[in-house]
Amino acid sequence: MRELTYYVATSLDGRIAAPDGDFSAFPVTGDHIDMVLEEWTDALPAPALAALGLTPPATRFDAVVMGWRTYASGFPHGVHDPYPHLDQVVVTRRHLDADVPPGVRLTDDPVGEVERLKAADGVGVWLCGGGDLAGTLVDQVDRLVLKINPVLLGEGAPVLSASYAARGFQLDRARTFASGVVVAEYARAT
User: Fold this and answer.
1) At CA 138, angle to CA 132 and CA 140, rounded to 5?
2) Which domain holds residue 156?
3) For position 107, which CATH number holds?
4) C-beta of residue 115 within 8 angstroms of C-beta of residue 137
5) Cα–Cα distance between 187 and 168 in angstroms, integer?
6) How would you class 131 by CB atoms within 10 Å of its CB: exposed for 0-12, middle for 13-18, buried for 19 or more?
7) Of the N and C termini of the chain, which has fewer Cβ atoms inside 10 Å?
8) Is residue 165 over pLDDT 90?
9) pTM for the full predicted model
10) pLDDT of residue 162
11) Which of 1, 4, 32, 30 is nearest to 138 (CA)?
12) Between the CA atoms of 28, 29, 31 and 33, what dihedral angle is there, to the nearest 10 degrees?
């Protein structure tokens, strides 16, 4: 059974993007980038992989689930098939009839889709974003990996939007980098 991992960059105050969806405040240079390139290659979008001459190893993920806004963030850059090396699922209620590439599947049933993906053979499922979708899927999340960036945004999209219910996670690993980024990895408490 595959695990669902919510792997996401966040600010110190728990925001994954500014109010307008911009996430350029997060540092894209520094020693934490080496870790991303070495350990999380399969979570890089196709344009980044091509620019770096990398081939994703499929050691962590072979499927990705994202909300429509996360998916559509690539449109201004001509990216409509961001992760062709992964089974791509886009959750949407309004765009189910959108014209998408063959490697992208649209659904309006995120919980059912994640249950199907987790039950299938494979490596792992990545919850790419955003916070509303993470809130819907919070009870499906097996692992939480936060790339905590040394910046306060004040407002913007939260890491997750969910109604209150305490959910326990155990710290598996935490690493600090000279860039100021902290990567904290948690597993659902049993």
Assistant:
1) 130
2) 4-188
3) 3.40.430.10
4) no
5) 9
6) buried
7) C
8) no
9) 0.94
10) 82
11) 4
12) 40
As a whole number of Å, the CA-based R_g of the chain is 16
Q: Quick count: other Cβ atoms within 10 Å of Cβ 173?
A: 10
**Residue 154 to residue 163: CA distance in whole angstroms:** 21
The rounded distance, in Å, linking the Cα atoms of 17 and 156 is 6
Burial class from Cβ neighbours inside 10 Å (0-12, 13-18, 19+) for residue 141 reads buried
> What does DSSP assign to residue 3?
P
Structural domain count of the chain: 1
My answer on whether omega of the bond before 168 falls inside 30° of 0, hence cis, is: no
Could you read off the pLDDT of 169-178 as tens digits, one per residue? 999 999 999 9
pLDDT of residue 34: 94
Mean pLDDT, the chain, integer: 95
**pLDDT tens for each residue of 91-103:** 999 999 999 999 9
Task: Give the whole-angstrom CA distance, residue 8 versus residue 66.
Answer: 11
